[in-house]
Structure formats: C-alpha cells, structure tokens
C-alpha cells in the first residue's frame, strides 16, 4: 500500500510533479528488482507505475477496501473485479496483486497467481508473505528451478528462520543437486547445531548418492558422542538392514539391547532382524519381550497382532497371536483395547467363553466402544444365553440407541423368548435406522415375518417376507420359512415350491430345508417326489427329529404303506413329537389333515 500512502501526502501542482518523478523512479526500481529476483538469464517482469493524482489515490484506496469487504463475505467474483480495477488504475499496487493472486490460488489457477505474485514481489521485494505465496505457485506449477531464488530472498528477509533453509535444501534435492543441499544443511547446523532432522536429511542424500558407508559413519559418530542414545542404534540398524547388510544390523541391535534391555523398540527391531534371517523362534521371543513392556505403544502392538490374521489358517499363527494378545492384557491391565483384542483372538480360536469374559472386561473399562459390545451380544446369542443377550444388548442401546445391528440382535433375543411384540419394536427400529445394509434389512424383515407368523398375522408376515427377499433373494432361511408357513396354510403352493427348491439349491444337505420341500410336494400330492426328499432329510438329520419322522409316516400312508406309516408315527411319538393329531393318526391308522 506504499503508493496509496505516498499519494495522500501530495497536493497541488508542485506535488503532482514530485509524484510523477517518484513514479518514474519507481519504474526503474521495479526493473532493477525484477532483474535481481529473476536472475540474469530469466524473463524480466516490468511493473510500470503511472502518475496518480490525489483523487486517483483516494479512489484506489476506496476500491481496495471494498474489494477486501467482498472477499471477507466470500464474494470472490466481486472481489476479483474490484482488485483488478485497482491494478488497472495503479499497476504497481502490490497489495491488490497479492490479494488477487490468493483468489486465483483458491481456484487452483496457479499459473495466473504466479504472474501476479511475480509482479508483487517486484514492487515490494521485502514482503515475506508474497515470497511464500510465490514459492507455493512455483511448486504447484513444477517450476522447481525458480525456488532457489525465492528461498534466497526469504532467507535475506528472515535469516534466522531455519525452515527457509530446509525448503531451499529440499528444492536442491528435487533437482538432484545433492552437494548444494548438503552445503545448506551445513549452514543450518551453524545456526541451530546438530539435530535429528539434519541427520535424517543428510542420510537421505547420502543414500541417494549411494554413499552407505558415509551415512553409517555419520551415525557412528552420533553414537560415539552419546552412546546411551538408543535411537541412533535403531537408525544405524535400519540403514544397514535396508541396504542388505543384515549381519551388521543385527550386531548393532544386539549392542543396543545390552545398553537398554527394556527398550521395546529395540526388541521389535530385533524381531524384524531375526525374521529376515528366518530365525522365527528368536523373532517371536523378541516380540514377547517387546509386548511385555508397558511403555511400548499399545497401538503398535495391536497392529502386530492384527498382522497375523491373514496367516490364520496356520495354527502356529493363531497360537502366536493369542499369546501376544494375552501378554498385552498383562502389560496394559487398565486399557480396554488390550482386552478387546484378546477377546478377538480367543474368538478366532473358538474359545467363546473366554472371549466373552474378555469382552466384558473391556466394556467395564470403557463402555464407549460399540463394536466390542456388539461382539459380546453376538456371543451371548451364539451361546444361547438369551437373558444375557437382552441385558447386554439393552445396556448397549442405552448408550448407542441408533445402532441398527444392536436393535436387530436384541429383537432376535426377544423373539427367542417368544416376546414377539417387544421383538417387533426392536426389529422395526433396525429397518428404520439402516437404509443401505441389505444383509441387515433382509434379516430384519425376515425376523419380522417370523414374529407376525407367531402372532397369527399372516398378511403382515407375508409382506415382511416379501420385503426381505427384495433385499436378498438368496436368503435361504427366509425362503425356507416363508415356503413352510405357506405350505402349512395350503396357500400359494407353487410359489412355496419354487422358494423351497431355491433354498435347497443354496444350502444342500440341510435336513430342515429338505423336510420343508418334501412337505410342500406332499401338499401338492406329489407323494413320490415327497418320499425322495423326506429320505434325504432323514439321512441328513443326525438326530432324526420326531417332526420329520411324522412327515415320513404321512407320505408313506398316501403311498399305500399304512403299516409302515403307523410304525413311523409311533416312532415320532417316542421322539417326543407333540403334534396334536399324532395320537389320532396312530389310533385311527390313517392320515388326518
């Protein structure tokens, strides 16, 4: 804004003459600065100021602040128009050039922003903000070769800011000017002394140059200066390891272990080193030592445990993950995550009772992790502990009422208790909370269909089953249940037959599904076909349930084998079949509908 301020001080004809002279001086200064900024062989950007009257200056000031106001309310279109108007009246108005460039940058128009900023730094070469913005444009426009001068100017303006030296070194690095970058790092060390950032950046360059020994020597010097600083051993070991000097890496780490035997990071590095050497036993031992150290970050440990999952067909991998997660609970007895991951590994190893205990412990330590609570309720249901499922599920819903899956699980538990109306409330909640998960929606509507069937509301039951199949036409259990209930009612038997047949195609050798299909064929009076499928059902039913044996007797009766039919009805009774018509069938020696 220097031009605006200068023009405000000049009034009258003599002052106008002085202003004109000043403007001419400004032009020559701009040309000089541009040559300096761009380099001798670079294109020169000329920003020609022009004589301005007091009225011009006042107008520029008014338009500029109007532009700032428009920008403040995010009306960038108007702001751009006003800033451009300022630059037409006053081409050397660096503040407007800068603001206009920022708007261009916000629209990712870095080419135009770059041109505006090159003019701004020409007019005002001592503005740090301008140079920083220009540096970003050069980076975005891949003009890396122009960055050296930018950072030279920034260092001139603010010579104590080490970030600018690092930026300059990075610019050299991306141009493969490694020796120039190293010289800049030497300058940084003069300013701030040796640091880990300097060490890392020099290492990066040495490795690019293929100077592994020089990189190693630098780290060895750091170790010699401070032999108890473990991180330098880790850096050196990583350097050797990544450059295929595994023996040297292992030796360095073994030295570090002697210096600090309770360093979890050293044990992890040793585990990696032994694994690279195919010494799995030694590697695993180092992992157990690392996991037992409470100071080692639990998140890092959990990532290691989860890394075993892809190898879980291997029983050794399962056992290793299980043991490491157990150690985790000892090292971190107050961390819910430790017990949750141990529960997960117990579950993977089919130790459901122990997994349930771990999940309960995790929830006690932290009740705000929903996934753990869902796992707990799923185990409750799998263990047929329906009361626990309801209790744990409703406790979870008191904290997470909008979790659709939990509403479904509690609904299923209530359904198991034959509390169908309560179950419907939860199941309907699940369908209203979830609109994308087709698996959940299919299962929820299927369960709603089961509930309505038991409540004798056949119309609502059928509607729910139909809805379930729109989300998943291959839901085998929905197909079976829907088909069976239709057959019991003797309704839509063709539809029932197709659904039941499809369920058996989806799940072969399912005795319950085979029994349903046999019963539908029986209802359709295809007694020979029914006999084929009831034979399959009995062959695949290890327990030979009373219901299936009764159905077998019914089919035999219509095939003319009355004595065999009665014999099977009696077997069904012995199995505990409580069909109300079974006794009448036996006594009357005939099928009763």
What does this entry look like structurally?
It is a single chain. With 593 residues, the protein is mainly α. The protein is built from 33 helices and no strands.
Number of helices: 33
What multimeric state do the chains show?
Answer: single chain
What's the overall average pLDDT, rounded? 90
Euclidean distance between termini CA atoms? 100 Å
Rg for CA atoms: 40 Å
Q: What is the approximate shape?
A: elongated
- Low-confidence segments, ≥5 residues, pLDDT <50? 1-44
Tell me the β content. Answer: under 5%
Q: Got a strand count?
A: 0
Characterize the biggest β-sheet: none
Q: What structural class do you assign from the helix and strand content?
A: mainly alpha
Helix-residue proportion: over 70%
Layout of strands and helices, then pairs:
Layout: H1 2-8, H2 12-38, H3 54-72, H4 76-89, H5 94-106, H6 110-123, H7 128-140, H8 147-157, H9 162-174, H10 178-192, H11 196-208, H12 212-225, H13 230-242, H14 246-259, H15 264-276, H16 280-291, H17 298-306, H18 315-331, H19 336-348, H20 352-365, H21 370-382, H22 386-399, H23 404-416, H24 420-433, H25 438-454, H26 458-471, H27 476-489, H28 493-506, H29 511-523, H30 527-540, H31 546-558, H32 562-574, H33 582-588
Index terms:
single chain, mainly alpha, about 600 residues, disordered N terminus
Briefly characterize the structure:
This protein is an all-alpha fold and 593 residues long. Helices cover 76% and strands 0% of the residues. Helix 9 (162-174) runs antiparallel to helix 10 (178-192), helix 21 runs parallel beside helix 23 and helix 23 (404-416) packs antiparallel against helix 24 (420-433).
